[in-house]
User: What shape does this take?
Amino acid sequence: MAFKNRSFDDASTVLDIRDLTVRLLDRPEAAPILDRISLSIRSGETACLVGESGSGKSVTSLAVMGLLPKEALAATGGTIDMEGQNLLKLGAQKMRELRASRISMIFQEPMTALNPVMRVGDQIEEVLDTHAKFSAQEKKRRVIDIMNQVHLPDVERIYRSYPHQLSGGQRQRIMIAMAIILEPQLLIADEPTTALDVTTQKQILSLIAELQEKHGTAVLFITHDMGVVAEIADTVHVMHHGEIVEQAPVGELLRTPRKDYTKRLLKAVPSLVPQPARPDEKRGEALVVEGLEKIYGGQGFLVKRESTLAATNVSFSIPRGRTLGIVGESGSGKSTVARCILRLIDPTEGEVRVANTEIARLSRRALRPHRRHIQIVFQDPFRSLNPRWTIGESLIEGPLNTGEDRTKAMKRAQELLSLVGLPEDAVSRYPHQFSGGQRQRIAIARAIAMEPDVLVADEAVSALDVSVQAQVLKLLADLQKKLGIALLFITHDLRVAAQICDEVIVMQHGRVVEHDTAANVLSNPQHAYTRALIEAAPGRNWDFANFCELPAA
Amino acid sequence: MLGYIIRRILAVIPVMTIVAVFVFLLLRLTPGDPAAIIAGDMATPAQLDRIRDSLGLNDPLYVQFITWVGNLLQGDLGTSIISNTSVTGMISERIWPTVNIALLTIIISVLLAVPMGVVAAWRHKSWIDYGVMSFSVLGFSIPVFVIGYIFIQIFSNELRWLPVQGYIPPSESIGGFLARAILPCLTLATIYVALIARMTRASMLEVLGEDYIRTARAKGVKEDIVLFRHALRNAAVPIMTIIGTGFALLIGGVVVTESVFNIPGIGRLTVDAILARDYPVIQGMILLTSGIYVLINLLIDLSYTFIDPRIRY
Assistant: This one.
């Protein structure tokens, strides 16, 4: 694939960070959060800061913005130089004047980064109110103009809308409009597309590139996604434990990484090329879903409410020991299907047979003994374990509910923990003592404690770093081989789907648009939507793990 | 929106009906002869007969209920047994002092407590925060009458700035009203300042950790605008709930303060009625207080939809 290969020798330096050190205020003797990092960005350049969670990417950006949490972190050394001024020495008032006028920032979560009780037009206008004096008319004109520049549709309506009335992509466009309305020299983008669907991500990335071209803005782009890096970066800075371990132009870094850490990071990026097909051992169906449909709403008190079709006509089956992936963007109905199968919500239509029992119509009470046959692992390991319970309590709750003896269950819990690669004494510890990856292992142990026939993984690796992601995927595959569980894997990430699924279903607007083997769906997609999804996957022509171009399909 | 308001108002009807049935049965289902209960131990048979007749106790229960509700809807709450005057008249005479005091108390409380809570959250774990929290604990724990007498001792007896007690309606003289109302209102406000400040602080602490606050700061917005324009409105729903409930409580239960400051409000009317077993007045008061609670809850619910555009029913 073609990497960016522009020269910035003539461009002026916009931001120059030298030996920046940031420490914890209450533990100055601990290892610094940022350890003498240096990087510079020239006008028109896109510098990508990559690294796993906790590497110090976001702290770097907050330090530049002067927004480090005052009571916890402080810059103790180095300089952040912007056009001859050391930002670290600037007073609060001066720093405030700089924000949004010369340095702007866009954040990861467009869902939470906008004030929910203010109209978005007012939120953009506030930037003008803070930094300039314009007449009301002029303000409105400028806001409408910037909203057009970020390609928002129906600008007059959106101007008056509240954030919750807009889609994720539209909100991120509002954030961008707010960030660039005063044409800053530096734009810091902290994972701006991570929470977005791939097709929306593609649009937002090209929007940032377009505006950068137009205004000559320097962009500091923070991401953990190597695909995005391959698409947009001029230079890449790899962070690890608060240090910049390698910096190089993008082509050089992806072709010939020098440091071991960089190589490890690149090797962990899951490939879009599906794994070779596993032989089907024909061990009978563990889960059969027929004509599943879910309609939300429809009834209301005194008024008829509009109903939403969340999923319709979904049929599939998973044999024991096999993995089926459901892929789709947000709102496609993939999670609705998962929840219907688990009867966390009640399907409107259709049949769900788990281990040859039809459960879609069972009453709550009659369903209870069947629950153990189907278990789920959720997306966010930080919120899916009860923080006040020991790991052991969480693991044995299910078995106890189905009448197992406490000592026996606890003994089994310890076995399960070693099965998922954790020490047995973890039973008496609490969730906060574990990392995200370890917690997800615990969540998996909790699910298999019930000895289910079917395990549903709802975006179970999406919140994890790639290296951890690879380990958890391997764990799931190993457990499947050992226990013969059927796995239903819900994900928005085609790369992950390619690594673990035997078959893939693609969903859009609550309907199944494609259903075939993983190899066929990914290398020979039939439906236009599947093709668009693959098309939008960033860095899809690059084989990150082998540092080379993918052979053209 | 309009549909929601109408539905919400219609929902008041069943609630008030249940209250009315309860209030009606209160007297009729009490063991013994209601007339004897009303008349008390010293009544002569002639008095009993008269009471029985005036209450229509000789009619079947459902006829009594219909007559009673019919009167109720016309604003007739019956006649006080003690003073022999109309209960509606008694209540409407006594309600204004209570309402005025309650309003002034709530206004004072909000003006003091909200900024206190906001600043405490902003300077979390600083001496300001600890100061506000300590005041809160004190405000909760000192009984109202103690605060009332302390205020009277300081401001009326020692400094001689304000009258000791009494009440003048604001329609007669605003100055006179304020001079007499300010001490009882401050007394009552202590606990509400404590409560509202605490709630504001807790709610603000949560909101100040939100991403959009970081966004506002990244825009270069000044701290006071971050706090009052961005954070406070997002923190407002629980604060409004406390303010509303506080106001309802102020209408129903300020007996002690009314006694300490000698204010002719409905708190004392209720207590007097209970002590004198003046059943028609007690019934009227129950209806009135529940009506006020229902109304205020309605207003709180409606206020949510104005505070937060995401709340739509």
Q: What stands out?
A: Chain B is about 75% helix and 0% strand. Chain B has a mean pLDDT of 86. The CA atoms of residues 203 and 235 of chain B lie 5 Å apart.
